[in-house]
Amino acid sequence: METNQVLQAIKELSTQMNERFDRLESRFEKVESRPYKIETSFDNIESKVDQMESRLDRLEEGQQVIKDQLDLLVKEHWENKTDIHKLKKIIRIAQN
Q1: How many whole angstroms separate alpha carbon 36 and alpha carbon 30?
Q2: CA angle, corner 80, sides to 79 and 86, nearest 5?
Q3: Between vectors from CA 87 to CA 82 and to CA 92, what angle results, nearest 5°?
Q4: Rounded distance, CA 10 to CA 12, Å?
Q5: Residue 45 carries which DSSP code?
Q6: Which helix (H) or strand (E) segment is 15 a member of?
Q7: For 19-55, how does the pLDDT look when each residue is reduced to its tens digit (9 = 90+)?
Q8: pLDDT band at 67, cuts 50/70/90?
Q9: CA atoms of 55 and 76, how far apart (whole Å)
Q10: Which of the four pLDDT bands, split at 50, 70 and 90, describes residue 1?
Q11: pTM passes above 0.85
Q12: Alpha-carbon Rg of the chain, whole angstroms?
């Protein structure tokens, strides 16, 4: 009878140890997968940052085009204003 009890106790301990090892193995697998998940997250963030930089570059290019067009409009405005002033002088001279 004692032998059966000892064998039963060993079997129970073995089962408990196997269950604990299984849980530990599961935890280690989770821990081992974390660096991969973190790396994937960083890759996604890096990709989004690259997209944002690309958008900012396009915005800066667009701003430069708008600035150039505005500078041209200001120059044309002043040229037209000068021409109008000259025409007014000519008209006054002609009227006198």
Answers
A1: 10
A2: 90
A3: 130
A4: 5
A5: H
A6: helix 2-95
A7: 999 999 999 998 888 888 899 999 999 999 999 999 9
A8: very high
A9: 31
A10: low
A11: no
A12: 41
